[in-house]
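Researcher: First entry.
Model:
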Amino acid sequence: MNNDINSSNYGEGDASFNAAGGVEGINKLVNAFYDAMETLPQAQHIREMHSQNLDESRDKLTRFLAGWLGGPKLFSEKYGPIRIPVAHRHLSIGPAERDAWLACMQIAINEQPYPQEFRDYFMKQIYVPAERSRNKD
């Protein structure tokens, strides 16, 4: 992982993907995210929205984040176009669910060896797709 990336480069090219440690680093982040979802009391409701086996959810989130962070478009290669609102419309997602999802992501990102500037950048940016998943007030 390249910790020398200047925070002003995040969001440009593959700088964020590299700061996250590439696919391997993103996979660690995603595993920590779902581990947090298993244990965080406020996330119990969103955990119940997922199937018991989280393998596909882990794969989809890893692939989404890889492309979203400027790396290879792994999600669309396997699952087709990314349509965040469409993919989540069968679920009831309001501000509480969005915030519980973000709380799990905050726990997960804090466990990674990322520079604080990248953690801050990531959490600010990940709010956008989290909010796009929301379909109720």
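Researcher: Second entry.
Model:
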Amino acid sequence: MFVPFKELPPSARIWIYQADRPLTEAELAAVEPALAQFAAEWTSHGRTLRASAAFRHGQFLVLGLDEAVAGASGCSIDASVRFVHGLEKQLGANLLEKSHLAFLVDGQVQLLDRRALREAVATGKLQPETPYFDNTIAQHGKLAAAWPAPAAETWLAKYFQPSPQR
């Protein structure tokens, strides 16, 4: 059963998929019916799930599931990944590739290759307060409260620690 994200409880489980490029308004509008249909038809062991699906910041697909109603099973998670693969084909965008980190810089989502992270911190391109889209968060409440969050308040904190003196 599709529900708007705002109706999911803070404890709802989420999955975040990051597109490798910003999506256009036309692309987002074109996939909107598919998002609602997927969430409406998503099931786990024959049980209807209370779910939502939406794009945020024009680049992040977020799937949400109220596990108090019914939890995700391996089969239902597989179904969600198949759905994401279908969206990739429809949009001509990669949503499953994880080698880039996303930051909010001057109001725009900017991607950074993981291999360039240390250098970006060392040169000051990234600061501890640079908003980071931590796509590893798994609860709706954290999405609403701290996404994006200052980079130094996420798993990236270790990159902003001073190096020990030798």
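Model: Note on the second entry: Residues 81 and 108 are 27 Å apart (CA to CA).
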